[in-house]
Design goal:
CATH superfamily of the largest domain: Response regulator
Shape: elongated
Pfam family, one: Peripla_BP_4
Distance between the termini: 96 Å
Number of strands: 12
Family: Belongs to the bacterial solute-binding protein 2 family.
Protein name: D-galactose/methyl-galactoside binding periplasmic protein MglB
Largest sheet: 6 strands, parallel
Order of helices and strands: HEHEHEHEHEHHEHEHEHEHEHEE
Structural class: alpha/beta
Keywords: Membrane, Metal-binding, Signal, Transmembrane, Transmembrane helix
Radius of gyration: 27 Å
Strand content: 15-25%
GO molecular function: carbohydrate binding; metal ion binding
Number of domains: 2
Length: 343
């Protein structure tokens, strides 16, 4: 009887040993899979238009951030960039491809910020986190899932800083802006997109800040130039021929359009007009040094790119995102500052 019991005990020990070996083997397999995932991250980037002056700089800086991280941490990071060509249907198809290929993270610069819901739902179903940037989805869409974030500058802050820059220049030398000395500054405005949140808010607060600063202003005309230098140049040529020296100030929602206005002034061989932009792209900074552009609101592309990459990298490694840098757990607001020849 004791012998039978002893044999049973031996058999139970063998069974338990087999179970331990099997469990250990499975843990090793899963650990190997996790290690493989950590060793390689694929990031899909969907831009609204890759040749946008500011976005192209951000994308270039994003690639540099990935390269630096790759070298520092000995990890393979693949960043693929697609061009939405200002068409939401094209961008949707590109994002669908990233999802089908099971990318670790998708970064999206929306063509149409109001159309993010479908993208969010598809990514959520595939459990692929999203980092939106530069074009902020509506608040309701940002609340659809916890694995989505936004990186961008504050549009109101940009408008206020731009307005303050003009007020500062006006107070320093009124004749520089109020060229006919009548006490009223006549301006034209180049806006980004019809109905675009940043464009609307930048315009509103730039002009309101002029008024708050004690300037009396009059709008001569304005146009939607789609953030584009060439379109801005065309509009500016037309206005210069129509209004001539009546134009005392050019307000632009971004640097690229501001540079287009300066191109038109140069082409028509007219006296320089006080012109301000937003973004701080290299071409604008060079124009300020040449005293063609009065100033810009700098929103450093490197800061945008690094913030986008830091979040994407953490998500790709399945680590928690640094909440200390986030507003409401989802938003990164990149700092901005005024820049003129004197700065």
């Amino acid at each position: 009887m004791n012998r039978i019991r002893k044999n049973k005990d031996i058999i139970m020990m063998i069974i338990l040993l087999c179970i331990v070996i099997i469990v250990a083997f499975q843990i090793k397999i899963f650990a190997g899979k996790d290690q493989k995932k950590v060793d390689s991250i694929r990031i899909g980037v969907a831009a609204y238009k890759v040749n946008d002056a500011f976005i192209s700089t951000v994308l270039s800086d994003l690639l540099e951030s990935a390269k630096a991280c790759e070298q520092k941490n000995n990890i393979k990071i693949r960043v693929d960039i697609s061009d939405g060509k200002e068409d939401q249907m094209i961008q949707n198809a590109q994002i669908d491809k990233y999802i089908a290929l099971d990318y670790d993270v998708i970064c999206v610069n929306m063509v149409d910020r109001t159309m993010a819901a479908t993208i969010v739902d598809k990514a959520k179903s595939a459990d692929i986190p999203i980092v939106f940037f530069n074009r902020e989805p509506v608040e309701e869409d940002m609340l659809r899932w916890d694995k989505m974030y936004y990186v961008g500058a504050d549009a109101k802050e940009a408008g206020v800083l731009q307005g303050e820059m003009i007020v500062d220049a006006y107070n320093k030398d009124k004749s520089f802006i109020d060229r006919n000395g009548d006490g009223t500054v006549a301006y034209v405005i180049l806006e980004g997109e019809s109905g675009h949140q940043d464009s609307l808010v930048r315009t509103e607060w730039s002009v309101q800040t002029l008024k708050n600063g004690g300037m009396k202003v009059e709008k001569l005309t304005g146009a939607i130039a789609d953030w584009d230098r060439n379109q801005a140049k065309v509009f500016m040529e037309k206005w210069l021929k129509e209004y001539g020296n009546q134009i005392e100030l050019i307000i632009s929602n971004n640097d690229d359009m501001a540079l287009g206005a300066i191109d038109a002034i140069k082409m028509l061989n007219m006296e320089q007009i006080a012109t301000v932009g937003i973004d701080g792209i290299p071409q604008a900074l060079a124009s300020i040094e040449e005293e063609k552009l009065l100033g810009t609101v700098v929103s450093e592309s490197k800061l945008h790119a690094q913030a986008i990459f830091d979040i994407a990298y953490s998500l790709g490694k399945e680590q928690s995102v640094d909440t200390e840098k986030l507003i409401q757990g989802k938003y990164v607001r990149v700092k901005q500052y005024k820049f003129t020849k004197e700065d």
